[in-house]
Amino acid sequence: MPGCPGEPLGDRSNAARPALQVGSRGSLEPGRYVWHPWPTGGPMPKTGERLTWTAAGSGERLEYATLEVPLDHTDPDGERISLALSRLRAGDPARRRGVLIGVTGGPGGDGGLGTGMPSRLAGTPLAEVYDLIGFDPRGTGASTPLRIEVTPTTVPFDSRPPDSVFEAMAADMRERELGCLRAGGDTRPHINTRNTARDLESIRVALGEEKLNFLGYAYGSYVGAVYGTMFPEHLDRSVLDSCVHPRWTWRQQFLAQARAVRENVDRWAEWTARRDNHFALGTTAALAVAAVEGVAAALEGRLGAAVRTSFDGIVGGLATDRSAWERLGLLVGALQAATAEGDDERTAALLAEHATGGWGARASEQWRQSVLEAVTLETEWPADLETYYADMRVCRERYPYGHGVLRAAPWVGAFRTFQSPEPPTVLARDGYPTGLVVQADGDPMDHREGGEALAELLGHHLITVEDSGDHEVYVLSGSNPRLEAYVERYLVDGVLPPARVSVPGARQAPPVPEDA
After folding, report:
1. Would you say the C-alpha torsion 506, 509, 512, 516 has a positive or negative sign?
2. What CATH number was assigned to the domain covering residues 54-144+191-247+427-504?
3. 3-state class (DSSP) for residue 396
4. How high is the pLDDT of residue 27?
5. By C-alpha distance, which of 262, 288, 263 is closest to 275?
6. Full DSSP string of 265-318
């Protein structure tokens, strides 16, 4: 998921879109839109469709099926696309309480577990009482794909690019959008959240279930909230984990990622400063960050921007993982020494040893981008490139870690070749039960403000995972018994935790003693 500030994910009329309002130049505070209601729901799925399930293999419990749905749900007799589904039947049929569908990844479901979701939940108490359902959202995985013409880039990724390459970066993104148009054509406007919610409703009908139970992670949290708004009578229990902000556009969501990574770096710096006897990076957070910046400058001066970019990525990745904080502190100290001594071989070895991955192109980029670039056009993007350039300068100075400036750079939305056929959904909870929101306070992908705002808006109970940089927390980020107890008691037994409760993160900072 790409983005520093943006706009809220609400609902508005296509006939009269409000002017874009971003924070003042040099600011990373989100702007606001005025939203207007839009009809919910839409044409109902055909009730006669049923699924044919096939076992994955001899002796396997996991089953697969395919469901055809309209590409355009307003034209149910028009072009059809297929959805790939999976199912793991409830382990205790006597206690079965329906189906639970899980959605991860995105925007759009790309990079998520898709049909692999039931297998990830197979060892939990949920698997005893629910038929666990997974699916590849429209355009992804084994469902009908949304294709893209992959266009070459002329500017390599630089976490702190000079102004001189801004226009070339924008031109690369323009070509990317045109490549999406050439390959995705008329399909792209129909790859959006509201249609994914309608697909969920089609799945419910095909399963013959009165209601769905839902577990949504990251973009899946937004899908679940939209489904509940559009089809409240058919949503039972829901858990939304690592949440998209309900009032931000995708640009704001991207921009908040840069802030979140920097907040994790600042927390690491505070922790390190209290242990200066061990790290020798300074007795204040400012001094620890200055040590990081000194290494970044030395790397660029000796080995070039690409090596410094790799270091910025390592800093962002390790600062997010509390269990890696000691590792990061020792790395910064070792790089200080290696660069001061001019030992380029040692410097390269240290960076290779600590590389976190994820800072280059992916082998599956063709499929990931095609859906990402469609779904994120649900909301407005500035057409004025100077808006992006101003925010890029802010990110370059204050938020260079992780993917840094890419979070503020022009996106395909600046050159959009289609308008969404309908506005985003004004989220509400009117007619379905109180659910749970799970949010790590240091989530680098979906800023903690999103979970807090979504819980407040929907009246859901909020579990804050404290001092944690985890993203997609329940089960997917490792064992966290206290969190698991709250989530499972709710989904299995219907017992909600207190309205606001906190649990510690699963991955804690190493037990390095503070200075006396």
Report:
1. negative
2. 3.40.50.1820
3. helix
4. 32
5. 288
6. HHHHHHHHHTTHHHH-S-SSHHHHHHHHHHHHHHHHHHH-HHHHHHHHHHHHHH
User: How is residue 396 written in tokens?
Assistant: 């370059």
- Which residues does residue 77 pair with via DSSP β-bridges, in sequence order? none
Low-confidence ranges of the chain (pLDDT < 70): 1-49, 58, 110, 356-369
Specify the length of the chain in residues.
516
Q: What is the pLDDT of residue 112?
A: 83
Contacts for 287-296: CB closer than 8 Å, 24+ residues apart: 288/329, 288/332, 289/265, 291/332, 291/333, 291/336, 292/265, 292/332, 294/336, 295/332, 295/335, 295/336, 295/339, 296/400
Q: Which residue type does 386 have?
A: E
Helix and strand numbers (H, E) in the chain are: 15, 10
Q: Which residues pair with 324 in a beta bridge?
A: none
Helix axes 325-340, 285-303, angle to 10 degrees: 50
Alpha-carbon distance of 115 to 79, in angstroms, equals 23
Helix (H) or strand (E) holding 307: helix 305-320
Taking phi over 0 as left and psi of -120 to 50 as alpha, with beta for the rest, 472 belongs to left
What does 87-112 look like in DSSP terms, one character per residue?
Answer: EE--S-GGG---EEEEE-SSSSSTTS
Q: State the Cα–Cα distance between residues 472 and 506, nearest whole angstrom.
A: 12
- The type of residue at 378 is E
Q: Encoding tokens for residue 73? A: 């749900």
pLDDT computed for residue 369 by the predictor: 55
Angle (CA) 92-93-97 rounded to 5° is 95
DSSP annotation of 447: -
Residue 418: CB atoms within 10 A of its CB come to: 16
Q: Would you state the pLDDT for residue 208? A: 97
Instruction: Spell out the residues 6+ positions from residue 38 whose beta carbon is closer than 8 angstroms to its own.
Output: 11, 12, 13, 422, 423, 425, 426
Q: Model confidence over 340-357: pLDDT tens digits?
A: 999 999 999 999 999 865
SS3 assignment, position 388: helix
Strands, E assignment, 167-208: none
Residue with tokens 């018994």: 481
User: What's the rounded Cα separation, in Å, for the pair 80 and 70?
Assistant: 4
Rounded to whole angstroms, the Cα distance separating 221 from 224 reads 5
Angle at 498 between CA 494 and CA 502, to 5 degrees: 115
Structure tokens at 488: 């499972």
CB 120 within 8 A of CB 475: yes
- pTM for the structure as a whole: 0.89
Q: How many CB atoms lie within 10 A of CB 504?
A: 14
What pLDDT digit, counting tens, does each position of 376-417 carry?
999 999 999 999 999 999 999 999 999 889 999 999 999 999
Domain ranges, ordered by start, for the chain: 54-144+191-247+427-504, 146-189+249-422
